[in-house]
């Protein structure tokens, strides 16, 4: 499933269930190189399509 559609569905389902609204969307990704979601521009697309603040947390690259 498309992650942007999944977030939109979750927000809509939450509203339709009469639950308290979400305050924000938190997106946690891998670093730029291995992150498929960053290549697909998921964070920017969510910021355009969802009427909630979107916070992006990117994992640090491990020192080996």
Structural key phrases:
two-stranded parallel ribbon, alpha+beta, 64 residues, 3 helices
Give the helix/strand class.
alpha+beta
The mean pLDDT is 95
Low-confidence stretches: none
Strand order of the main beta sheet, please? 1-2
Write the H/E string, N to C: HEHHE
Question: What does it look like?
Answer:
The chain has 64 residues and is α+β, with helices and mostly antiparallel strands. Helices cover 41% and strands 16% of the residues. It has three helices and two strands, in the order αβααβ. The chain has a two-stranded parallel sheet. It is elongated and about 45 Å long.
Strand and helix layout:
Blueprint lengths: L2 H14 L8 E5 L6 H4 L2 H8 L4 E5 L6
Parallel strand pairs: 1-2
Helix pairs in contact: 1-3
Quick recap of the structure?
This protein has 64 residues and is an alpha+beta fold. Helix content is 41%, strand content 16%. A two-stranded parallel sheet has the order 1-2.
């Amino acid at each position: 499933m498309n992650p942007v559609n999944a977030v939109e569905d979750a927000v809509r389902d939450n509203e339709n269930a009469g639950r308290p609204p979400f305050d924000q969307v938190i997106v946690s990704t891998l670093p730029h190189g291995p992150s498929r979601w960053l290549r697909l521009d998921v964070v920017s697309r969510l910021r355009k399509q969802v009427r909630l603040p979107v916070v992006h947390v990117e994992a640090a690259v491990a020192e080996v």
